[in-house]
Write a structure and sequence with these properties.
Layout (H helix, E strand, L loop, with lengths): L2 H14 L3 H17 L3 E4 L6 E4 L5 H10 L5 H11 L3 H13 L1 H29 L1
Antiparallel strand pairs: 1-2
Helix pairs in contact: 1-2, 3-4, 3-5, 3-6, 4-5, 5-6
């Protein structure tokens, strides 16, 4: 690899808390996924790096709505698109990514559910303390 590229990887890896080899591996993996699933990007956030729609929410959010749709199949895709105000093609991109990486997305959904339950329990304790 070019020396300037290695230097950039070294600096970026230091900021991210990982060595340049691990960072390069992450970029290669994400690049391949982006190529295989047009419309998907990766973004950092407080909960970690996750896949999302380039012009919209995270994939786990789309799939969460899709899983909660009152119908299945194409009707669920239409419901999700309407609910999230997304084009059908964007929902289909999220579904395509989910089909390839369902365990990863299911983990994000479970993590969000746990966080929501913990926040609700804390709120209930606060309400009980105020009663």
């Amino acid at each position: 690899m070019d020396a300037s590229l290695l230097d950039r990887l070294e600096r970026r890896g230091a900021r991210a808390g990982m060595n340049k080899s691990r960072l390069a591996e992450r970029y290669i993996e994400e690049g391949l996924r982006i190529e295989d699933h047009p419309g998907i990007v990766f973004r950092d956030g407080p909960a970690g790096r996750r896949p999302g729609l380039a012009a919209g929410p995270d994939v786990w959010e789309v799939i969460g709505v899709l899983n909660g749709a009152p119908e299945r199949g194409e009707a669920a895709i239409s419901y999700t698109a309407d609910y999230l105000n997304l084009p059908l093609a964007h929902v289909r991109s999220a579904v395509s990514y989910y089909a390839a990486y369902s365990a990863e997305i299911d983990m994000w959904i479970a993590h969000n559910d746990e966080e929501a339950e913990a926040a609700e329990a804390a709120w209930r304790r606060e309400q009980a303390a105020l009663a």
